[in-house]
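Running log. JK asked me to keep both predictions on one page so they can be read side by side. First protein, sequence followed by its tokens:
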Amino acid sequence: MKHCTLTIIALAVLLLSCNQNSSKNTVTTHKQPVDTAGKQVRQVDLTEEQTERVKTIIALFKENNIDKIANRINYPLHREYPIPPIRDKETFKQRFNEVFDTTLIDKIANSKLEQWSAVGWQGVMLDNGLVWLGYSDAVITAVNYQSEIEKN
């Protein structure tokens, strides 16, 4: 019994010491994004392929090419409740200005590659999740922005 108690104490000390930061002087300058379950996600630099996809999206928004942007949406594009999701290209074209107002268009069109980051299997995001692109393609999977039209 005495050996079991000593073993448990040794394991507890070992586990607690493994959970310590390597530096006590570490300062966090920005918050890490979190997934839908509230867990922190790890951001990494973009691969060459992802960089090209992001450049394509930026170019489409610089051109304000609604038809081509509509082809780069993963439908349905969910909106904040009670706003109904956008289920197809035609509806997207009709509601484009509701989702992508001039503020968001400018934000995407003028974004720098440093503002985009890959988040494992979850995809590529702009500015900690404002806009999400699919992992394996350059389709917009989520827009976590609400325009004034949608707010009203």
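And the second, directly underneath as requested:
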Amino acid sequence: MDDSDASFLLAGSELHSRARWHCEPRRWSVTPLERAMRIEPDAPTDFWRKTHYGFEADNGHFLGAEVDGDFTLTALVTYRPVHQYDQAGLMVRLSPTCWLKTSVEYELDEPGRLGVVVTNNGYSDWSTQDVAPGGGRIWLRVRRQANDYFVESSWDGSTWQQLRMTHLEDAQSTAVMAGVYACSPKGAGFVAEFSGVTMTR
């Protein structure tokens, strides 16, 4: 992989040969000129393990590629939510019981929740902060250093704030799957778009 790879997941109007779906959605498309991807999540879909709510879901839509060693994954996420908990963002995945995701999650008649879910040993936790309700666009970034991860967000693509510094424990090797994800736990109709998806080494 080049030092900065702007075609990390996409190759023209197709997916890159290294890109792989976890639970491919029924409806998705690529816009080649804009180097963008659109996902319309099926429902009910989600990623969560046990904590507080007691349920387990691993059927969200994740498009990722294997990457080894340190990296920075960046994307601009445009989201038009419809139902409570609609979400789209970035994900790093080692196994069904060890992963992280970062996104804005939609709440009805309340501020949205910009946050990070970290799952280790089969249990998820969730750190959040309030953001303006409704849809919008946000830059998200995940930086890996060894088995530690720094998750950041930006509203303008230039000024970044740290959301989380965390560790993923299930590291049998340095290779992980990294990419974009979207979920609709309550109902279909949500549209998420990803552009500027870049992997930097």
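Observation for JK regarding the second prediction: The domain at 4-200 is CATH 2.60.120.200 (Jelly Rolls).
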